[in-house]
Structure formats: structure tokens, C-alpha cells
Amino acid sequence: MTTQNATATIDPREAAHFGEMAADWWNPAGSSAMLHKLNPVRLRYIRAAIDRHWPGNAHGFRPLAGRRALDVGCGAGLLAEPLARLGAAVTGLDAAPENIAVAAAHAVGQQLSIDYRATPVEDLADSGFDLVTSMEVIEHVADPAAFVRALAGKLAPDGLMILSTPNRTPLSRLAMITIGESVGGIPKGTHDWRKFLTPDELTVLLDQAGLEVTDSSGLSFDPRSGFTLSANSAINYLLTARHKAR
Question: What architecture is domain 12-53+61-243?
């Protein structure tokens, strides 16, 4: 396992929890089934954000061609692989070496070249990434403020950051823990509701790190159509941020 420095934001207990799920990560009916259902909605949001930020290739298949992307908390590559298919040179970081091993093997099978590392974002020497993503991760780290600062430090001056995380509301507790971790397929113990951040709290952390929020969307569940982007952020939400104008 990669040695962590004193400022690393990784929570070893969280890393171990998700590492135990590594072998099953790509099974759409397995322990990561919820992530498989979330991923298409995330990708729609990310693609729209890319097209707004870098206009001119809205109808192309590779809008990230020539750009570098960093996915922090990449798991076994559910988001990193689509980003690579969109043309990016992708680096994926995860706290669990087990996840990185599965991610690397899966990428080879898909004939994708992705730089996967079991490295805390604080220890990554590279910076200047055009796109930085971290999906459903900040609620699992030891120090959210330090984590956001570390993400901001990897972002290029004209870069785009996209985060998603559960909101801290009574409805999110019901949906993601009471129901999700009992009959919803989410492994028990995955979430600590007290560590969820509200959109206002996350916006403050981004502001303190020198970033401004340029877009946000709720992520809701509809029994008829599954997960959808919506104005309701009571369960989960996504934020787009960039460096503040100087």
C-alpha cells in the first residue's frame, strides 16, 4: 500500500471497506449496483459541463481529446473509462490498492490506456489537469477541507472540477442508509450520514480553496425512470467549479 503522509485525507477504514468490494465492482448486479445506475446520469451532467466550458465540439465523440483528466476516488474505473473514451488522458487515484488492480486489469481488457495509482491526491506530483472529478468521495475522507484544497491544487488555471456527493438531509438518511443499506443493495456501513455535506457547506469549502461554483444540479430517484438530474438536491447533488477570476 502506498505510504501516506501526515496530511493525507484518506480514511484507512473507508479504504479497507471499498477495497473489499473491488472484485465485484464491475458487476452491475453486485455490491456496486447503485454506482452502475448512477453513472449514466453523472456522465450526462459531465458531458454538458464539458460542452459549456469548452464549446465547439458539442456533437463530437471525443470532446476531451488533447486534455488531461484526473478522477480521484476512481474505484475500479466506472468513470475513468468513459472519460478516456471521451478522449482524455486519464489519471485515476484510489485509496484502495485492490481497486486500482481491478481497474488496471479492466482497462487492459477494454484496450484503454489509463494511469491508475493507489496514491493520495496530496502525494500526486502531477498538476495542471484540465478536468478533475471526484464522485461520491468527499463524504468518505478524513478532512473534507484539506481534500478540496488538494483537488484545487491539481486543477489547471482554465480547468473544470466536477464533484458529486449526498446531501445531509432527513431524506438522504432514509434513502441511502435506512433503505439503501438494508434492501437497496448498498453494502451496510458504506455511509456515515454525519459526514454528508450540504451544498452550502461544500460551496464554502470550494470558495476557501479559491474556486467558484458555476453550476449545480440535484440527483433524484424516480421509481419509473431511475436516477435523474433535477432541481431537487435533497438526496444527492453535483457541482461544477472553476478557479475564481483574477
Answer: 3-Layer(aba) Sandwich (3.40)
